[in-house]
Design brief:
With 305 residues, the chain is an alpha/beta fold. It contains 11 helices and 14 strands. The strands form 3 sheets. Strands 6-7-8-3-9-10 form a 6-stranded mixed beta sheet, sandwiched between helices. The chain has a 4-stranded antiparallel beta sheet with strand order 2-1-4-5, with helices on one face. It binds adenosine-5'-diphosphate (ADP) and magnesium ion. Magnesium ion (MG) binds next to helix 1.
Length: 305
């Protein structure tokens, strides 16, 4: 891509004493892009984000937002970013509405029509004291403030873990609106269906290291599609075809196998010549891709399963 990235991270490292929480984090986020940052608990997502916010100082490597150093230029960067953590702390004796306005004031914005629309959309009662709010309601307060902030880059660190499905959908809708406006979004998550639905590109982090970056389509290219089929004629050569794995008999004369994405055309061709009666193809989900990197058995990784 020729565009200048909003966020540029290169070989970022962070040590806590002897423990290396970030070993090598490298990725970019571009304008108009929703970047999904995924990995299980403890992989280093929040540490990366807290470094980007200038809360933590990197041990090595570099990170810039808008071309400015995230640690040295934090004050000027913060005027143009919005951030929502997964665990939102609110002043217990202020009402949700007061806190939203306070958040907006702190980021140099004002309560606007958009703020009112968002309060309606997320169905928050802004008159209640924050101490009465559930985790989901506390998240709503922070999300409403963030979405009504005029920023160029929005950072969400597992922001939807307390939201019900309906509010999760409102969250997705609000992010889609930001994207349409050409804003950049970094969304850290362990909810893969959310990332699969919303993100243009994805970075997978494991043990403080980015193990894969790309679009879902690019990642799928590395994996196998599962095919279930039934043909009129027998298919004795199937198991020996290039790229075909795990051929298994199923009830009712069906068979299943997995196939490397690259060999798919030849294999489908082979089946077509044996008169296909039924064919169902299941592309790998993000979950399959993810499990591939998190499956601890070394054989599976070596075999590319
Ligand atoms: N302040 C800290 N001091 C020591 N270890 C930390 C600190 N913050 C995070 N860690 C460790 O760094 C690793 C990454 O944590 P974190 O970035 O919170 O992961 P994630 O957000 O992906 O769940 C974990 O092993 C965590 O225990
Ligand atoms: Mg975290």
């Amino acid at each position: 891509m020729m565009t200048t990235p909003i966020l540029h991270i290169e070989h970022l490292q962070k040590n806590f004493g002897k423990f290396q929480a970030l070993k090598d984090v490298t990725f970019d986020v571009y304008p108009g892009e929703v970047f999904g940052f995924i990995g299980p608990n403890g992989a280093g997502k929040s540490t990366t984000i807290r470094t980007l916010l200038g809360i933590l100082k990197a041990s090595a490597g570099s990170a810039t937002i808008f071309g400015q150093d995230v640690f040295k230029d934090a004050v000027s960067i913060h005027k143009r970013i919005a951030y929502v953590p997964g665990d939102v702390y609110l002043w217990p004796n202020l009402s949700g509405g007061e806190i939203i306005d306070l958040f907006l004031k702190l980021s140099g914005d004002k309560h606007s029509d958009k703020t009112d629309q968002l309060i309606k959309r997320f169905q928050l009662d802004p008159t209640k004291k924050a101490r009465t709010y559930s985790k989901g309601n506390r998240q709503k307060v922070a999300l409403i403030a963030a979405f009504s902030t005029e920023a160029d880059f929005y950072i969400f660190d597992e922001p939807t873990s307390g939201l019900d499905p309906l509010n999760e959908e409102y969250f997705q809708k609000s992010v889609a609106e930001l994207k349409k406006q050409g804003k950049a979004v970094l969304l850290s998550s362990h909810i893969l269906s959310e990332v699969e639905k919303m993100c243009d590109r994805i970075g997978i982090i494991r043990d403080g290291q980015i193990v894969e970056t790309g679009t879902l389509a690019e990642m799928r290219h590395l994996t196998r599609t599962v095919i279930t089929f039934k043909t009129m004629d027998d298919t004795p050569e199937l198991a020996s075809l290039n790229g075909v794995h795990n051929v298994e008999d199923q009830p009712n004369g069906r068979q299943t196998f997995s196939v490397d994405t690259e060999q798919m055309p030849e294999v489908i061709d082979y089946l077509a010549q044996r008169q296909i009666v039924e064919l169902q193809s299941t592309p790998p989900t993000l979950e399959d891709l993810f499990m591939r990197y998190y499956d601890t058995s070394e054989e599976n990784i070596a075999e590319g399963k």
